[in-house]
């Protein structure tokens, strides 16, 4: 009975103890739940904004989308630079543990040149703008297929389809149009300075040279953005928002594909430049520098071997001879000097000089020889230009003096950039007394003035300067800025590039223009004219002046010094130069030519001008339709004021 | 009185040995589980079916165990415990490795995970042991009980399986606590554990476990490596806000930024999609199950049933605490699933077996009385 009671008491005590412990447990559990809840409240309510932002930045990515680059066309709409789809193999180095071995494997798999691997490691050292680095462009469809099958074996390597710049005419337009190349560190710095780096967020190439560089802003366009949702592996799951890029503007150049091709063919195997201008606008119809090279090599990165071969080529194909080549103008500046003589009243049309075949300055022993050993006899300004008489000009230059020559020639545009719309331009050199003191610390000698009289001595010009100064002679002193850009295709339609003129050259008596123009016309019409033979039976009138620049110190300066030239080493032969315009009465085109080491200009440059002029006038008459391509568009424009001059071209042939 | 009324209201439930309220709460959790797994598992029905099958199996186990009078297990306690220890030793010697740990025994036909058995064998053993002597239990009995708990805990810890070790240790300690272990011993124990932490740190933990703790203390230490899980989990929970992003709309989970979405980190998926409101509801459900379990234990007819029921209930709470604490950044990352919600089989069956025992305790009372 007693023990039983104890047992019952124990039982109750046990039960009560358990009850107390259970209650304690519930209280503790409740407290801990509260702590959990407070923490969750902190996360979900207090810090909600922060975590929402982090959640969004996890999943939302803004991807820039590159705009399509504007196309470049010639004046008739022929494509000169286009964007073609290419398959490129792109590599993310961080995702490949054994980079070299893997790439070598891929090279073997796709039968690619082995040098690509070294080239890739070179490009690795340059600055990176994108996680993927292109390994090679222009995979064939077969290569794409073969890689796709083996894709799983190469994580971190992928085939990407992209638009790439392509120049269908290869080397034909390189010096005018230039090319685009991969954006490098210097480009990035420049873009950052101009605050336009954001616009290049997705762009891989940028204009490096020529038109592509000069009109980069027009051609590039506006970057677009794509807001996408990505998963944890960065794969795009869906697009949330798309702001399409604004493509770059297409541009039309003044260049004419056929004239350009013809001009380039004329220079084949030679070194030199040919410029052809629209006389009434300054539009550049042909812009040739030979030798040239294929700009497509540079688009996706040129191999170092190829680049070295270009650099080490003795013919210097990288130099833009049309605007950077510095040539002694030789006799081509005789019309210009003649004009100065007339303007300053040193000579009149009737003034005659006796040419015994040489000239000498009083008190100086050296004799300045004429190219014709026995001389030209009595020479006036017409004859001096037609037969390219040196003695007349020795005399004239000496009478003018270097100061007057420098001043006037500078006004014509010598010694300064023409302002053509590419950055690769040289001002060449117009010598002056001050220049010589600054450069050599020496006084100017009278003998040097005499040499300047036949475009030698220190005087150098670019073929573009020859063309623009010739245009000035042809248009009675108007100074057009030469332009490659004809029109830009904006959203609202084609907008023409306005003609730019610098202040015209005013002279005291406008009749002097006609005097010089008539003398230049006689270079062709007169049987003694230096370009007479080259322009026999031409169906149009043309004005010309030939030149032969001495490269090595041979005995005399001369036009058509054929015998001697064939005897000397190729690089020591004379340079041929030529300027001309046609028709004489209402000039439409200007031509300037400089060819290195071929001999005299009358024989080697004038025939080229003939070919080009023939082509220009015959195609104008026979094939008017394509030429009016842009003009017809122009008529649709409400205000096409800047383009009116272009219609004159068409009107002129009617 | 109340129980009599309940039985009168639901005589068929009593006859089936089912506690209606507890059963409803469990079903609610399991249904929730299917919806969250569908969302977390990339919306594939395959996972949902697999989980549904497991739930069905688990409920069968629950139902079977509920039919057995708890006093019957009492006699098996020692036997189960000894078998469990033997299997744990066998695992350490002969076990099959997986995921850097040796947890399974290959029986040819199937693999078994003996540590799951211990989750029940330890409370059985401890409850049996505590019922033998006086009440409240003496200090030496507590020491003995601690030893009985420590042996399987260490064996599991060595596998290594920190999560199960913690659960097994908790289940033993809870029995001792409920059996009336004196507060002085509780205090001393807490102090001892605290002072042994540095020792454990340097000698007891594997480097990956040490990393987990370091990362827990500062997840941003290694945002792309070990800290990634916790950071992404906190982002998921936090970005859920009050109302949540909506079912199937959680970007952190749907876009796979969350690791272990349908297993250990399923709470983050739930919080992201259902927000604080869902979280409160879920915790209420868990709280209800815990209160209900303790209530059943309090009403039990004998000490053995009380201790067993209380331990099972409180161990269930430890699951909830460790899992939610882990994914919300309060506790280090320890592989403990969110009970009845996480995808996965073994622990669910064990847990349901535990609830079967609770059902048995709740419904076999009268029979004992009538005897």
What is the assembly state of the chains in this entry?
heterodimer
The overall average pLDDT of chain A, rounded, is 85
Q: What is the top-level CATH class of the largest domain in chain A? A: Alpha Beta
* The CATH architecture of the largest domain in chain A: 3-Layer(aba) Sandwich
Compute the average pLDDT of chain B. Answer: 86
Beginning-to-end CA distance, first to last residue of chain A: 143 Å
CATH topology of the largest domain in chain A: Beta-lactamase
How many strand units of chain B?
3
| Largest sheet: number of strands, sense, barrel closure of chain B | 3 strands, antiparallel
Strand content of chain B: under 5%
Report strand % of chain A. 15-25%
How many structural domains in the coordinates of chain A? Answer: 2
Sum up the overall morphology of chain A in one term. Answer: elongated
Helix fraction of chain B, binned, reads: over 70%
Number of helices of chain B: 16
Largest interface, chains and sizes:
A-B, 40 and 47 residues
Give me some keywords for this one.
heterodimer, A: 654 residues, alpha+beta, Penicillin-binding protein 2a (Domain 2), Beta-lactamase, 2 domains, seven-stranded mixed beta sheet, five-stranded antiparallel beta sheet, 27 helices, 41% helix, disordered N terminus, disordered C terminus, B: 371 residues, mainly alpha, three-stranded antiparallel beta sheet, 16 helices, 73% helix, globular
């Amino acid at each position: 009975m007693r023990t039983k009671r104890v047992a019952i008491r124990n039982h109750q005590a046990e039960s009560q103890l358990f009850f107390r412990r259970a209650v304690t447990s519930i209280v503790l559990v409740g407290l801990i739940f509260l702590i959990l809840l407070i923490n969750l409240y902190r996360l979900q309510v207090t810090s909600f904004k922060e975590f929402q932002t982090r959640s969004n930045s996890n999943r939302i990515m803004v991807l820039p989308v590159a705009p399509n680059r504007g196309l470049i066309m010639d004046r008739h709409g022929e494509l000169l630079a286009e964007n073609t789809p290419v398959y490129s193999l792109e590599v993310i180095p961080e995702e490949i543990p054994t980079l070299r071995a893997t790439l070598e494997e891929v090279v073997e798999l796709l039968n690619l040149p082995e040098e690509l691997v070294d080239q890739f490691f070179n490009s690795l050292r340059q600055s990176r703008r994108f996680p993927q680095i292109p390994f090679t462009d222009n995979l064939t469809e077969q290569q794409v297929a073969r890689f796709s099958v083996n894709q799983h074996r190469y994580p971190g390597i992928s085939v990407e389809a992209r638009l790439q710049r392509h120049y269908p005419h290869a080397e034909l337009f390189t010096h005018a149009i230039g090319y685009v190349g991969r954006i490098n560190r210097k480009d990035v710095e420049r873009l950052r300075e101009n605050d336009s780096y954001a616009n290049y967020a997705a762009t891989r190439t940028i204009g490096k040279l020529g038109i592509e560089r000069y009109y980069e802003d027009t051609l590039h366009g506006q970057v677009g953005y794509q807001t996408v949702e990505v998963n944890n592996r960065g794969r795009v799951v869906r697009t949330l928002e798309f702001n399409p890029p604004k493509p770059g503007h297409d541009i039309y150049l003044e260049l004419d594909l056929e004239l350009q091709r013809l001009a380039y063919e004329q220079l084949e195997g030679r070194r030199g430049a040919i410029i052809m201008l629209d006389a009434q606008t300054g539009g550049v119809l042909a812009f040739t520098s030979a030798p040239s090279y294929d700009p497509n090599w540079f688009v996706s990165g040129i191999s170092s071997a190829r680049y070295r071969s270009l650099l080490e080529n003795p013919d210097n194909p990288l130099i833009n001879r049309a605007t950077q080549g510095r040539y002694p103008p030789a006799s081509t500046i005789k019309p210009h000097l003649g004009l100065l003589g007339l303007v300053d009243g040193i000579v009149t049309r009737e003034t005659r000089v006796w040419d015994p075949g040489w000239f000498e300055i009083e008190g100086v022993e050296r004799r300045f020889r004429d190219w014709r050993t026995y001389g030209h006899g009595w020479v006036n300004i017409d004859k001096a230009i037609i037969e390219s008489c040196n003695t007349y000009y020795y005399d004239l230059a000496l009478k003018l003096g270097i100061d007057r020559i420098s001043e006037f020639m500078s006004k014509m545009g010598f010694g300064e950039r023409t302002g053509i719309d590419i950055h690769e331009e040289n001002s060449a050199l117009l010598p002056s007394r001050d220049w010589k003191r600054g450069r050599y610390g020496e006084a100017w000698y009278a003998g040097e003035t005499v040499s300047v009289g036949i475009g030698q001595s220190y005087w150098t010009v670019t073929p573009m300067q020859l063309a623009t100064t010739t245009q000035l002679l042809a248009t009675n002193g108007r100074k057009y800025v030469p332009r490659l850009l004809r029109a830009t295709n904006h959203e609202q339609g084609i907008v023409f590039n306005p003609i730019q003129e610098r202040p015209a050259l005013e002279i005291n008596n406008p009749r002097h223009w006609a005097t010089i123009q008539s003398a230049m016309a006689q270079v062709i019409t007169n049987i003694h004219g230096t370009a007479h033979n080259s322009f026999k039976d031409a169906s149009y009138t043309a004005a010309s002046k030939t030149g032969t620049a001495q490269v090595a110190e041979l005995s005399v300066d001369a036009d058509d010094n054929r015998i001697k030239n064939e005897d000397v080493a190729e690089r020591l032969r004379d340079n041929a130069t030529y300027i001309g315009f046609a028709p004489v009465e209402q000039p439409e085109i200007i031509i300037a030519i400089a060819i290195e080491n071929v001999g005299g200009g009358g024989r080697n440059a004038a025939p080229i001008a003939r070919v080009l002029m023939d082509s220009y006038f015959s195609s104008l008459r026979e094939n008017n339709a394509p030429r009016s391509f842009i003009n017809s568009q122009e008529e649709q424009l409400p205000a096409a004021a800047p383009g009116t001059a272009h219609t004159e071209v068409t009107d002129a042939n009617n | 009185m109340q129980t009599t009324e309940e039985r009168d209201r639901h005589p068929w439930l009593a006859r089936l040995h089912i506690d209606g309220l507890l059963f409803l709460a469990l079903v609610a959790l399991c249904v929730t589980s299917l919806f969250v797994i569908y969302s977390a598992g990339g919306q594939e029905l395959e996972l949902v079916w697999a989980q549904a099958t497991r739930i069905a199996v688990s409920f069968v186990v629950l139902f079977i165990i509920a039919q057995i009078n708890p006093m019957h297990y009492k006699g098996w306690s020692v036997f189960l415990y000894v078998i469990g220890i033997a299997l744990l030793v066998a695992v350490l010697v002969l076990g099959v490795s997986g995921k850097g740990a040796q947890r399974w025994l290959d029986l040819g036909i199937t693999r078994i995970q003996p540590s799951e058995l211990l989750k029940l064998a330890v409370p059985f053993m401890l409850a049996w042991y505590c019922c033998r002597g006086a009440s409240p239990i003496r200090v030496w009995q507590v020491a003995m009980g601690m030893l009985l708990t420590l042996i399987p805990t260490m064996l599991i810890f060595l596998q290594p399986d920190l999560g199960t070790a913690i659960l097994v240790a908790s289940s033993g300690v809870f029995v001792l606590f409920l059996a009336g272990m004196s507060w002085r011993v509780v205090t001393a124990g807490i102090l001892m554990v605290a002072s042994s932490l540095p020792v454990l740190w340097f000698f007891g933990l594997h480097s990956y476990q040490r990393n987990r703790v370091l990362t827990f203390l500062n997840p941003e230490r290694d945002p792309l490596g070990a800290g990634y899980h916790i950071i992404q989990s906190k982002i998921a929970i936090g970005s859920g806000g009050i109302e949540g992003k909506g079912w199937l709309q959680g970007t952190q989970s749907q876009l796979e930024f969350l690791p272990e979405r349908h297993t250990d980190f399923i709470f983050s998926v739930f919080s992201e999609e259902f927000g604080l409101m869902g979280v409160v509801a879920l915790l209420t459900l868990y709280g209800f199950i815990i209160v209900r379990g303790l209530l059943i234990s309090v009403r039990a007819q004998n000490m053995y049933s009380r201790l067993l029921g209380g331990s099972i209930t409180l161990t269930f709470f430890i699951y909830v605490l460790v899992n939610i604490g882990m994914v919300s950044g309060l506790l280090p990352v320890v592989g403990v699933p969110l009970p009845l919600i996480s995808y996965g089989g073994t622990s669910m069956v064990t847990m349901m077996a535990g609830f079967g025992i609770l059902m048995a305790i709740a419904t076999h009372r009268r029979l004992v009385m009538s005897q």
